[in-house]
Amino acid sequence: MRLFRSMAPVTLAVALVLTTAVVLVLTTPFEATPHARVEQKPEPFGAECRTTVQGSHVSVRCHNPYPATDRVRLHIECARWWDLDTDGEPADAVPATTVRLTGRCWKEVGSAWVSHQRRGS
What pLDDT digit, counting tens, does each position of 80-105 carry? Predict the structure, then answer.
């Protein structure tokens, strides 16, 4: 009987240590637990456009191979100072489609380019 009474303080101490350890493990914050980081790659976007200039006329064909709609717009800068530069109307290149954009100057074309915008932005 005396053996059990002498073991009581030791048993109590071991139980207390184990309980504290369990509480510490159970109360570990979520951020402290290891987890894998997943880097998200940006979704591919942007129609491929081919521009043709013939004299004062500009023609562009844009094909969108990606799942997001691309709003394309033709911009033309004319070579002559008195000739009006133009920004065409935007056209939606939905997935797997080709759109055609056209424009012109009165005389020579200085430069032409296409701008891209995600639909809904």
Answer: 999 999 999 999 999 999 999 999 99
Cα separation of 48 and 66, whole Å? 10
Does pTM surpass 0.70? Answer: no
Based on the number of CB atoms within 10 Å of its own CB, is 11 exposed (0-12), middle (13-18) or buried (19 or more)?
exposed
Residue with tokens 């053996």: 3
Which residue, among 73, 53, 54, has the nearest Cα to 62 in the 3D structure?
73
The answer to whether 90 and 101 are in contact (CB under 8 A) is: no
What gap in Å lies between CA 60 and CA 73, rounded to an integer?
A: 10
Neighbours of 93 (CB within 10 A): 26
